[in-house]
Each structure stands twice: as structure tokens, then as C-alpha cells.
Write a structure and sequence with these properties.
Length: 398
């Protein structure tokens, strides 16, 4: 994995004290946070012609933006404006892939139905969602699903929903590639290893001196205690802890093709909440898979640029989480995967936990203006890769 060059403190500001000993540097837009939400806002501002600086306290992005599936997953998003936002983000990901050469594959996705109640939810969704149909979403037979997806376990499969809109990126490569593109293409001043210690708009105090910006966008992700903590206390934001796994590179460059998921996913994403058939599915899953429902397990399968497979995940919501991973949860994830997918080399080479901010009241993002000239953007939950580029254009276009 490559990362943007780490900038050292400017000698005109002294040794990382945050106290200016030289001139205050000025830009049009300052972005706080180097995860995908921050990068998206820096890109949107730069495309408007702004002079932009981006501050990230770590030496490179290490949070939720690189601990995910790399799924640009429009099909799961809330119907209406949020779905359209996801489609706009998809366009930008493909543009960035073409410009930078980073891996961004429009693989599409398959929702696999192995029980009648799962099939009923998918059929209802397709029948009642014209926007998805207009973009090619359709029901296909079990045989067709097996032809499209080499990993699909055809035995016992009743049918599947095919969606062509999903794009697969490799988050550990894509996030630093976007940061490098910002610097190279738009001249964005990307300052990794620089923490913002305080804001009194239009001023920012950082560990690399004092700055001034006409617009400040705070995209601090999981760190919502440092800047404007009162905004987050009032927001209802909590942290979601998840567990994920990854295999080694598959033999002979084997390709997954469409990203895959099973019946539990229909209980996770907002796209399916209005389906009347979902109630029966939920009741059965609670009776048959109480451990999975208790731990928010649903199972997705994606691939990386070098043919490794990413598997997950679980969901636990709280203000604070312990740092420990549960082997029982990992085994439940893998057991569910084996029911609908067969992969050449299933040996697990990596396991990790992730943590991201989440709103639990149906909102898809937190956008707040704590003082003139400052906008806080957070709470995109597990859809940061899917929604951030479109959201950033909307926020900066207000």
C-alpha cells in the first residue's frame, strides 16, 4: 500500500507547537479529516476552483475508510435522493479510476435467495422500485446467477437479484490514491500527520501552525470528541464496531465477478425496509439465527485488486467498545458465507475490527453548522465509500 508523502512542519510556524511564529497561511477551504468523507469534500471544493488544504492527524488514513469491503453499494441505499446520491458517487469513483489507474471495477452485485421469504423480498423490491429497474436491476434464475458469479453455490438456490450499479474498489489502495490525485491534479495541500487542535472560524490552530480559511469542513469520523463535541452530543451519534476477515490471493488470479450477499443482508440495508415481505423474513431469521441477529451479522463478499476476498461483517452499537474480536462471531460469518458461496481457497489470512460513527434514527448523515463558516459532516455509517462523493457535492453546493 502506498501513501501520500508526509509533510513536515513548516519552519515559519515553529516546531509543531500550533503557535504561529510566521505569517498565517490562508486558503479558500480547509478540510479536517483524511478519510473518504474528508477526501470527498476536498475533491468537491477543488473542482469548484478553491485553494484547499486537508489536515489528517495520522500519517495516513487508518480508520473505517480502509477497513471496509470496497463496495460502492448503491443498491442497498435508501430509495429516492440517497440512492441518486450513491449513483453520483459511483460516477465519480469511475472517473477517478480512469484518471488515476486505480482499480475500480463495475462488477455489479448478486443478492442470492435460498429460501422463499428471501425471494419474496427481492421480487417485491424489484417490482416496487422503478429507479432500480431503470438502472438494470432485475430478477434472474438460479442458473443465470451461477453463470454470472463463479462463487455462487447453485445447489438450493431459488433465484437472485442482479444489480449492475455496484463498483468494487480496493480501499487500502483507493483511499491513498484519491489523496495523491488531489495533490497532483488539483494542488490540494494534503497534510498528513497534522492535527487540528482548535477552530475559531475563520482560524484553525494546528500542530503545523495557524491557518485561515473562508470555509472549514470538519469530517473527523470516529473522533467526534475533539472538535465541536457539543454537536455530536446532541446528534445521537454512536460508534458501530464490526468484525471482518480476508483470505489470501486466490489461485491463478481467480475473479469473483459480481459481489455477493445472502438473505441476512435484506434485513440490514434501508433499501428493503418498505418491503412488506420483509416482516416474515425477519421473524424467521430471529427464530433460526438469534446469534446472528443479536450481533448484527449479515454477510457480504467482495474482492481486492490482487484477488483476495473480503468477508464480513457484524454490527454492535455503543458509545464505547472494547478492542477485542470474537471468534464466535467470525465463525458465524464464515458459516453463513459457506451457505451461498464457494471460493477456491477459503483460508483466512487477516482479521480485524473496525469502528465508525452511526446514526440510529434513520438519518443517513449528520450535517451541522456550529458557527458561521464551519460545517460538520459525519454519521454516514457504513456507507461512506458509497455516498461521500455525492454528499460532498451537495454540502458544498448549499
Amino acid at each position: 500500500m502506498t501513501h501520500p508523502t508526509l509533510r513536515t512542519p513548516d519552519p515559519t510556524t515553529g516546531p509543531a507547537t500550533g503557535r504561529a511564529t510566521g505569517p498565517v497561511r490562508s486558503v479558500d477551504t480547509a478540510v479536517v479529516g483524511g478519510g473518504i468523507v474528508g477526501l470527498a469534500h476536498a475533491l468537491a471544493a477543488a473542482r469548484r476552483g478553491d485553494r484547499v488544504v486537508l489536515f489528517e492527524r495520522d500519517g495516513y488514513a487508518v480508520g473505517a475508510s480502509i477497513r471496509n469491503f470496497g463496495m460502492i453499494w448503491a443498491i442497498g441505499q435508501q430509495r429516492g435522493a440517497v440512492y441518486q446520491r450513491a449513483l453520483r458517487s459511483r460516477e465519480i469513483w469511475l472517473e477517478l479510476g480512469a484518471k488515476t489507474g486505480m482499480w475500480a471495477e463495475p462488477t455489479g452485485s448478486l443478492h442470492l435467495a435460498r429460501r422463499p421469504d428471501e425471494l419474496a423480498v427481492l421480487e417485491e423490491f424489484v417490482a416496487t422500485t422503478p429507479a432500480a429497474r431503470e438502472h438494470g436491476t432485475t430478477m434472474i434464475t438460479a442458473a443465470e446467477a451461477a453463470r454470472r458469479g463463479p462463487a455462487v453455490r447453485a445447489e438450493g438456490l431459488l433465484g437472485a437479484m442482479w444489480s449492475p450499479t455496484e463498483v468494487n474498489v480496493d480501499p487500502r489502495l483507493a483511499v491513498p490514491a484519491v489523496a495523491a490525485h488531489l495533490a497532483e491534479e488539483y494542488g490540494v495541500d494534503v497534510r498528513f500527520g497534522t492535527a487540528v487542535r482548535g477552530i475559531a472560524a475563520p482560524r484553525l490552530s494546528t500542530t503545523d501552525g495557524e491557518w485561515r480559511a473562508d470555509r472549514i469542513v470538519v469530517c473527523s469520523g470516529n473522533d467526534f470528541a475533539t472538535l465541536y463535541p457539543e454537536v455530536f452530543r446532541a446528534s445521537g451519534l454512536v460508534r458501530c464496531k464490526l468484525q471482518m476477515l480476508r483470505t489470501g490471493a486466490q489461485p491463478d488470479g481467480w475473479q469473483l465477478g459480481p459481489m455477493l450477499c445472502g438473505g441476512l443482508t435484506l434485513l440490514h440495508y434501508a433499501a428493503f425496509e418498505d418491503c412488506t415481505a420483509r416482516a416474515a423474513l425477519d421473524a424467521r431469521m430471529r427464530a433460526e439465527l438469534p446469534f446472528h441477529r443479536e450481533h448484527g451479522i449479515h454477510v457480504l463478499l467482495s474482492q481486492t485488486a490482487d484477488s483476495r476476498l473480503t468477508i464480513g461483517d457484524s454490527h454492535a452499537y455503543a458509545a464505547t467498545h472494547d478492542p477485542f474480536a470474537s471468534e464466535e462471531i467470525d465463525q458465524a460469518i464464515l458459516g453463513s458465507l459457506r451457505e451461498f458461496a464457494r471460493i477456491p481457497d477459503p483460508r483466512i489470512t487477516e482479521r480485524w475490527t473496525g469502528c465508525y460513527p452511526s446514526l440510529r434514527d434513520g438519518r443517513t448523515e449528520l450535517v451541522a453548522d456550529p458557527e458561521p463558516g464551519v460545517t460538520v459532516v459525519n454519521g454516514v455509517g457504513g456507507a461512506g465509500m458509497t455516498l461521500s462523493f455525492g454528499l460532498a457535492e451537495e454540502v458544498l453546493g448549499r
